[in-house]
Amino acid sequence: MLIEKYKSDIESILSRYPVKRSALIPLLYLAQRDEGFVSEAAMKEIAVLLRLTPPQVYETATFYTMLNLKRVGKFHLQVCKSLMCALAGSDTVIGWVKTKLGIGPGETTADGLFTLSAVECLAACGTAPMMQANEDYYERLTEETFDRILADLKKDGTSSLKSGPFMWPEAPKAQ
Amino acid sequence: MAESAETVRLTIDGIPISVPKGTLVIEAARRVGVMVPHFCYHPKLKPDANCRMCLVEVEKMPKLQTSCSTVATEGMAVRTATTVVHDAHKSVLEFILANHPLDCPVCDQGGKCDLQDFSHEYTATASRFAETKRIFQKEYFSPLIETQMNRCVQCLRCVRYCDEVMDVKALAPVGRGTMTEIKHFGAHPLDCEFCGGCVQICPVGAITSRLSMYEYRPWMLKRADTVCNFCGDGCQITVQTKDQELIEVNSAQGAGRNNGDLCARGFFGFHATSHPSRVTHPLIRRNGALVEATWEEALEFVAEQTKRLKLAHGPHAFGGLISGRCTNEELYLFQKFMRLTIGTNNLDSSARYGHVNGVRAMRLVQGTHRWTVTFEDITQADVLLLVGTNITEANPITGLKVKEAVKKHEATLLTIEAIQPAIGTISNITNLSQQHFCVAPSQFHAAVLGLLKAVIEENHIDSTIRQRASDYVSAVSQAVQQLAWDNLALSTGISRESFAHMAASLAGGRRVVVLAGQTLLRSQGGYGICLNLLDLLLLSGKLTAQGCGFAPLAEENNDQGTVEMGAVAELLPGAVDLTDQDARAQMTRAWKEELPLAAGATLIEMIDRAQAGTIKSLFVIGENPVGSLPPQTRVKEALGKLELLVCQELFLTETAALAHVVLPAASAMEKAGTFTNTEGHVQVVRPAIDPVGDSRPDWEILSALSVFIGAPLEYGDAKEILKEIRAVIPGYGSLGPSPIPPAVDHAAVNRYVTEGYRHGFATRYTLPAHAVRPEGTVQLGLVQSLFHSGKLSTHSKGLLQIEPSGFLQMNPVDAARCAIGTGDRARLSNSRGEFTTTVKVFDRVPEGLAWLPDHFAQNALRLFDCVIDPDTKVPSCRTASVSVMKTT
Amino acid sequence: MPKHELILLKNMMQPGYTGSLQDYERAGGYQALRKIVGKVPPPEVTATVLKSGLRGRGGAGFPTGVKWGFLPKGYQGPRYLCCNADESEPGTFKDRQLIERDPHQLLEGIVLACYAIGAESAYIYIRGEFVLGARILEQAIAEARTAGYIGTNILGTGITANVWVHRGAGAYICGEETALLESLEGKRGLPRVKPPFPATHGLYSKPTVVNNVETLANLPHIISRGPEWFASIGSPPKSTGTRVFCVSGHVKRSGNYEVPMGVTFRELIYEQAGGMRSDKPLKAFIPGGASAPFLTPNHLDVKLDFESVAAAGSMLGSGGVTVMEEGTDMVWAALRLMEFFYHESCGKCSPCREGSSWLVQTMRRIVAKRGRMEDLETLVDLCKNIEGRTVCAFGDAEVAPIMSTLKHWRPEYVALIHAAEAANLIMPEPAGRL
Q: What's the sign of the alpha-carbon dihedral B352, B356, B360, B363?
């Protein structure tokens, strides 16, 4: 039960909105953080918390691409394939994933580590090609950085190559 | 109201028209006979403008506008028939058809499909769509409802109806874009109110009824517009038949008091009367067993026995009991048969179970036997008070009127109900309450008294009544002063502040309607509480105000008719007192015969007299006292002592099984007549099929019996009886589309405030004893299920799919205390007996209560006590204290 | 020294600037708030913004002061401000930088707007993928709350302005203001039928203003330096101030460039962004995000202001400029964008829902050399039948790539179809296409 595990988080979320239903997406995120995806049980519990019917939770949950109603790999690689990234070679990035991990879009590696999704624009067009792995952005990908990222993720669960606060072109360096 | 008076003038294709301010262009067009094609628009729903089909040209607007979301304004010039508009319609239709499968030949909507009709009108040529059509995985939806999402045009009418009208929210548009499909939640079949609204409102064949799947084409069916007989709401239904088979029921014309809305019983329950166990031939008991006989033999037998018993014991050795499911014509003829052919006032009907309480209270206080308000007054009310209605389950369509008032017109809803607000698969009216008092039926009285006390103490008393009836006002004031807030809080759990708050809401309303339902009317002291509620309206000045009134809800479809036809012991046709000399004189003139003088026995009194041996014979029409009354009344034993028990029945009920003669009766699907609904609206009943087997309408049987007995009451058809009714009962003249409610009779109010209120006054202003609930027990209540009506519906294959048996419904806290969960078996017991059933944990049941659906409670009746109201003789046997134990 | 004075990007261009409250205050931050809150009557703030000529930076370019003026006067009860940080228009990535590098600039703008319109609550609706941005904003809000810039008693004036971050969850349509409101209410992000407009029936049916990040970030500067100053920048009177243009595609130095409105595309692409990445010349560019029709080298001297770009047959939109070099397959490019719109169509309106699926399938066929000449006529027809027939502007947007590429590069479509005819065989649908 989410309410037992995240009581204060849930209370804090609910306190932000005058109408309970607004807390729906934040609570779905909470459920996804907990289980890795949004389960039927979680949707039922959230419905009770927000005084909604389960179908009302369900219809919202299925509208948004970031909410997974099925389990995904430990690392969800989301490679942008929209035009701006494609101009900079995003199809090649998808090709690397296929070669290096053996998965195509919508597939998960047998060890359950990686899932690949080809996604639409993630607002990093100036630093294409790019991908998001779980919560982090990785931009201006090259085959070399891509290999390092995969290795880092497998080893440490994260990578130092992830983007920090965004600025491009970069600011002049402090003297 | 002022806003409806304002109008705007506009032209539609050059035709000038004046419409009320706020009217949508599509509706204005409809008024001049222009049908703008549309899918997503529906007058019941908020405009969503998603299908884009209803585009029209509006002068001075650059783009085409959707007429379903554009409000008509003064001087607007709308064109619906230009080339530009036609091309737009054609192009939108092309888009909608792009992914639509060409499966019209196997689609049940074929022949009544909007998409088919518009396609015929706009696109004669082949589609330009040469791509792959979208295909959804076929999913099993429900045993009653079929979905075929490939046909869906995504207008969302079903989803919006389920939310906006029903407040059920069982349907979800799932996914995004062109892959959006309508689904329910969970890996199990659909679980909802099964109102059939989604089936009816779907403009294409995406959602259809499985009861009639693949069986017909619309043009092969015969239609009969008639009235549903599952509850007092009186919904108009269209029954569609093929030969003698019932195929489908809907209310798609949007007509009737229900405006086209139905509930599960109305939509899916129609097979009840075509169950194979129908009694189709007369039966006579020979050597202890009921055996088939001819009508002649049966009628002859009954007539002979009747004549013999009457000669030996006189007319008062007879009694009669009739069901509120019968037509007015049958009820009228029944009481005439009992009063003239037999010569006794020993007669009663199912209205005695509760409806009589409401009607008697109205008669006493306001001098009417009908509501002074209509469904329209409910939808237009600004404050609604519901007391013990269980409205969604008992009177679902009246419930929709309440929902409409709250959801569409923002009325303030106040509720005193034995229901906990909780979200579930069926709607819960208390979720919409502005203020809700959750109290057990045994404490309705206390809650109403608290409200009265608050109205008086917070000084919400109308100045006129204070002046005109100071004695009455001070009597009530003094009475409520005696009640201590602490005691009220102890009984109800409601604070003085809450009572004051509700009293203020009530007093602040301009159009206030108080609805009292079955839970209240059938509970102990129900009559007194009705009087108290009328006092509440009277004191706050609402009783006589426009749009205000008291509305007791009828359970059976013609409970109101039984009272108006005089099919109860104490009332003559027209619901006038048996003792009223003028009324008696009038009836004598009409019938050309003297009426029996002696006061008649009511339901329980008749059973007692049968027990005592003074009643020797009983005519029972469609009623089943053995199945309805607790064994404690010793009803079975009493009926066993009768020398002649005649039952006119559809099925061999527990009562009919004891009969000497069973006469097969025709169901409401098989006969003509009229029903009077809960608001007092008289509606025409038309046969959809011929009587099943040898069955005959009850009036025909009574008429034939009277002939055999030798005191003939002869009528050629039901209309002839109606003609006689019209001559003796006001209000049965012309049957219009909506009722014309009576006004409060000021003379009656005067009589009430000067003298009438005194009778039983002390009792109804005394706080009922605060019952201490022993540890480990719950208050078991017999309740109405949304999916059944009496026992009749338990013969309906559709409804049995939804609810095949009864469950004990318990609050989660009580269930946990008993260490019991959904699906477990539980033994209920008290000093009177025990009963074992399956448990369903249900969060809308208040703590300390448990519910058992009436329809399957046959064997649980032994747990119940029966208390008779001293004034109205209503037997109350709906609650019992029981302990619950888990068992295997 | 940059050629043009920076306003929005000024702080973050300072070496070592971290975007912390301290840094922002040191750079003169929250002075605008101190100057007016509790001192200048709110209607005067609206008048100032109106006078500055500030127009919405989200895409539609509606004058901000006018939008605020639509709120019902004298309305008692809650009003809301929503900051649209759902930056999703392909080609656009400026809000991300404004949020992550200088969050307090945005927050000051939000509080100023709250004060002007009388909103006690503001929600920043940030696209779900900007996890870092959301975290940075939360952190900044906490700082500002502690410092008394946000909360129930701003700077001791008794005025309330609470700011909350609300993350979206992956839906382009939620950048449309009414879809944003639906989404913020916990529903599916479907645009609402208008009227009523958010100004009267917005969040929870209450009067609401929805403003873009960049729009709000301009407010502290307008208040501090005066509307006249702001109105003198750019190409007054209709396009005042600067804009942060996002340059992507085949240029040497892609990225965000803040320039006064009215500079030419030539300057933006060849001076700011360093010109083409290789020796191939420019073939096409999209001037204002994926919803804006493509332009050609002939349009390089068009000025980057609302009116000039509109006159050239496109729109300034969100300021996302995507550059394509010679050799780029324009039919393929249009298909890529069409795939985007197909994926993102919310499905409410039949023409857009069904049209996007139809268009994308036809385009895939043409690109896969399975097209027919009559497809071109059908494409144009379908586009015309979608345009202007939907609840929101998405319908107009989704036809832009096809309509404009067909207009400027029709021979490329024809060539693909001729190739199909030459091959004279029906090829199977390509498998696994993205």
A: negative
* C-alpha gyration radius of chain A: 18
How many beta-carbon pairs under 8 angstroms link A with C?
186
Q: Measured between alpha carbons, how far is residue B792 from residues B275, B650, B797 in Å?
A: 10, 9, 11
Tell me, yes or no, if C130 comes closer than 8 A to chain A by beta carbon.
yes
Nearest CA in chain C to A133: C129
Contact C86, C126 (CB under 8 A): yes
Residue B390 CB neighbours (<10 A): 25
The answer to whether the beta carbons of residues C73 and C43 sit under 8 Å apart is: no
Contact present, B219 and B229 (Cβ < 8 Å): no
Give the model's pLDDT for residue B786.
96
Count Cβ atoms within 10 A of the Cβ of residue B848 and give its class: 0-12 exposed, 13-18 middle, 19 or more buried: middle
Q: Are strands B867-868 and B875-876 parallel, antiparallel or unpaired?
A: antiparallel
Give the pLDDT confidence of B789-817 residue by residue, as tens digits: 999 999 999 999 999 999 999 999 999 99
Residues of A with CB under 8 A from a CB of B: 40, 43, 47-48, 51-59, 62-63
* Strand ranges for C294-370 from DSSP E: 320-325
pLDDT one-digit tens code per residue, C58-88: 988 999 999 999 999 989 999 999 999 999 9
* Closest-CA distance of chain A to residue B843, Å: 11
Amino acid making up residue B487: N
Count the neighbouring beta carbons within 10 Å of the beta carbon of residue C426.
Answer: 7
- Number of residues that this document lists for chain B: 888
Put simply, whether C313 touches A (Cβ < 8 Å) is no
Q: What is residue B768's predicted lDDT score, i.e. its pLDDT?
A: 86
Closest partner residue to A62 (CB to CB) among B169, B174, B184 is B174
For residues C108 and C235, is the Cβ–Cβ distance under 8 A?
Answer: no
Using DSSP's 3-state secondary structure scheme, residue B577 falls into strand
Mind telling me how many Å the CA of B40 is from chain A's nearest CA? Answer: 19
CA distance C425 to chain B (A): 16
Q: Judge contact between B448 and B514, C-beta under 8 A.
A: no
ipTM at complex level:
0.97
Whether residue B177 and residue C385 make contact (CB cut-off 8 A), yes or no, is: no
Q: Give the residue ranges of DSSP H helices in chain A.
A: 2-5, 7-14, 24-35, 40-50, 54-61, 83-87, 90-101, 143-156
Read off the DSSP letter of residue B786.
T
pLDDT digit string (tens) for B709-728? 999 999 999 999 999 999 99
Q: Give residue A174's pLDDT band: very low, low, confident or very high (50, 70, 90).
A: low
- Distance between A82 CA and the closest CA of chain B, angstroms: 18
User: In whole angstroms, what is the distance from residue B324 CA to residue B588 CA?
Assistant: 25
Confidence of residue B4 (pLDDT cuts 50, 70, 90): low
The helix (H) or strand (E) run that includes residue B649 is strand B644-649
Q: How far apart are CA B241 and CA C79, in angstroms?
A: 57
* CB spacing of A62 vs B168 below 8 angstroms: no
